[in-house]
Fold this protein.
Amino acid sequence: MRRYRIGEVADMLGLTVRTVRYYEEEGLIKIGRTASRQRWYTDEDILYIRRILELKNLGFSLDEIGGIIRLKDEDESGNKRRLELLRRYRAKLSESIERKRKLEEHISELEWHVRQLEGAEGHFQTCPGESCRDCLYKERCSFYLPGEGDES
């Protein structure tokens, strides 16, 4: 089994030495030490750190990650961790789908405004106003003034 020093691990994973130490302090990884108390890391430690980074990139907090990792002590089969990860992945997926829906609405609204401005060439100064009576977008336009130019 190969052993790595903290600087090697940090370089390998694109982290700072301080970040690797922080993960240890938070109990996210448990590393070995030499007789002279120097830290050493194994391939398994590197795998754990990669998993931590993956979960962080998916929006998990370090507290959430720590809670999942600590489940290892409660269940050697790993099933508790698997089920907890599944539950949390599903929650993150739902949150992301909702953010995507809102972003798509926002994009659609921006596209609509771009189309309106592209089509307003030559009579942009009259909106809102006399153009409102004939506007095809009265119901959607935030500038439409009911009664302005309407015959109702």
Summary: Residues 124-152 form one domain. The helical segments are 6-13, 17-25, 43-57, 62-70, 79-119. The chain has a mean pLDDT of 85. The chain has three domains: 1-62, 74-119, 124-152.
